[in-house]
């Protein structure tokens, strides 16, 4: 098992971080830095259109597709992964987390655009898509799609077991409820939602995700308002440590510059899943009139996950000072809870626990759907239902600790998914560029949106007069 752990640590070190960084930079250049040039427009087309009826065809609304995708990415990585990045890479790791998020937007945009472009309708009349479809239809390389699909379908079994264990151990530690009971209750809840398909998942996540994110981030904002004077120091700490080795501070052991960058990149990518190929499976079902328009929602997913939720966690930890206390290095996973407790007492710890439970539960809901879509692609609709049953039982097995044996394989399986997806994005990069240029040059989309906005502004000015 030590050999597996060593190989896992190596491949998720320099090799994969370099692959993601280079491919993210390549797509950013190829797409003309669109995530920066059109950022205001992207926000207007996403958050600014939540209450507008979506154009085009699809199975769920664009917002439901986003919240389904966010259910998978907002979770333990935001609450537990951020303190790990700080403890092993120092405060400067947060800067590199932001950098990889900005670059990763291009990858997330590309894979979601391709997912919508090459999607199709299944036997239930639902739109389905994702890397396995654009590998098969866009590249004519079904073997690559089968590789991705099979690897993801199998990887999600230990992944769901780990999530089940996380929720059960959290509930047991906070409320003293036996792990098996929590596992069974979680499995029942998951079954009720996932067997209703993407429409039911979308309806649950569009309420669930914003509600839990607002409570968690809202708690962090309250802390920020209580501690406004710490904001300049927070940014100084991050920027001053981003380009230099971090000295020893109390319980913090210090970090070399390579570690600062590595931990920031690794935790950032692990958090927003840019390039991993999972989020496009949710985005493929969205109602939209052009693949690029749904790609904007994927960009906003990175903003919410990394630039907002991860930054909120970082502020609470760094401003509270818990990261420099004795024993912090050995107990990094509990730092977020301890930091909230520092400000809110016992209520703070309970707030983090409840947020973690709901984030993990919503993650399980969506990854079961992802896994079922792989079984559907490989073997048909009946196999998808059978795989859902396997995943539901995996929640119970994970709750009682069965995941520990296969934990070491998780990161290796993730690499087996990520590599074929990055290959496909790069090979189809010209297609993404063509679709992006079509959207921004056509009178049907970008120019039409701009004209509508100008007319609305003029009408508003006339009414005010």
UniProtKB/TrEMBL annotation:
<feature type="transmembrane region" description="Helical">
    <location>
        <begin position="377"/>
        <end position="400"/>
    </location>
</feature>
<feature type="transmembrane region" description="Helical">
    <location>
        <begin position="234"/>
        <end position="258"/>
    </location>
</feature>
<feature type="transmembrane region" description="Helical">
    <location>
        <begin position="7"/>
        <end position="29"/>
    </location>
</feature>
<dbReference type="Pfam" id="PF01235">
    <property type="entry name" value="Na_Ala_symp"/>
</dbReference>
<dbReference type="InterPro" id="IPR001463">
    <property type="entry name" value="Na/Ala_symport"/>
</dbReference>
<keyword id="KW-0769">Symport</keyword>
<dbReference type="GO" id="GO:0005283">
    <property type="term" value="F:amino acid:sodium symporter activity"/>
</dbReference>
<comment type="similarity">
    <text>Belongs to the alanine or glycine:cation symporter (AGCS) (TC 2.A.25) family.</text>
</comment>
<keyword id="KW-1133">Transmembrane helix</keyword>
<protein>
    <submittedName>
        <fullName>Sodium:alanine symporter family protein</fullName>
    </submittedName>
</protein>
<feature type="transmembrane region" description="Helical">
    <location>
        <begin position="406"/>
        <end position="428"/>
    </location>
</feature>
<feature type="transmembrane region" description="Helical">
    <location>
        <begin position="207"/>
        <end position="228"/>
    </location>
</feature>
<feature type="transmembrane region" description="Helical">
    <location>
        <begin position="143"/>
        <end position="161"/>
    </location>
</feature>
<keyword id="KW-0812">Transmembrane</keyword>
<feature type="transmembrane region" description="Helical">
    <location>
        <begin position="173"/>
        <end position="195"/>
    </location>
</feature>
<feature type="transmembrane region" description="Helical">
    <location>
        <begin position="343"/>
        <end position="370"/>
    </location>
</feature>
<feature type="transmembrane region" description="Helical">
    <location>
        <begin position="296"/>
        <end position="323"/>
    </location>
</feature>
<keyword id="KW-0813">Transport</keyword>
<keyword id="KW-1003">Cell membrane</keyword>
<dbReference type="GO" id="GO:0005886">
    <property type="term" value="C:plasma membrane"/>
</dbReference>
<keyword id="KW-0472">Membrane</keyword>
